[in-house]
């Protein structure tokens, strides 16, 4: 399972970086979104999710610290999802404004006739 998760993170990261290097603005935005998904999976993998672990400390029950589920990775990923959504919305607004002002969606603002 670890190999599949590592491959998924690697493929998402490579795809995101490849799209970030493309000349069109929309491809850059999609690349940033894919890269943020890769980071979310990485945070989950580093957090070592536990099955059948107690999520909340109960009064009167004494358990070792290692028997509790760690809520920090889930909180980090939820925060990253919200920030990623806001970032994507902002980039789409900037993309639409740039397209309206320049008439093209290239990152540098001009069409390359040699491609």
From TrEMBL:
Keywords: Cell membrane, Membrane, Transmembrane, Transmembrane helix. The chain crosses the membrane at residues 26-46, 75-97. GO terms for cellular component: plasma membrane. It is a multi-pass membrane protein. Pfam families: Oxidored_q2 (PF00420). The keyword Cytoplasm does not apply. It is found in: Cell membrane. It comes from the Bacteria. InterPro entries: CPA3_antiporter_subunitC, NUOK/Mnh_C1-like. Belongs to the CPA3 antiporters (TC 2.A.63) subunit C family. This is Na(+)/H(+) antiporter subunit C1. The gene is mnhC1.
């Amino acid at each position: 399972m670890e190999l599949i998760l590592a491959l998924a993170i690697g493929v998402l990261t490579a795809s995101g970086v490849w799209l970030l290097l493309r000349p069109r603005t929309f491809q850059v935005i999609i690349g940033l979104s894919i890269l943020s998904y890769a980071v979310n999976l990485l945070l989950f993998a580093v957090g070592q999710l536990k099955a059948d672990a107690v999520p909340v400390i109960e009064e009167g029950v004494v358990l070792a610290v290692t028997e509790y589920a760690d809520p920090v990775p889930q909180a980090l990923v939820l925060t990253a999802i919200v920030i990623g959504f806001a970032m994507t919305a902002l980039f789409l607004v900037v993309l639409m404004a740039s397209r309206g002002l320049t008439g093209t969606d290239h990152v540098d603002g001009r069409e390359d006739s040699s491609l």
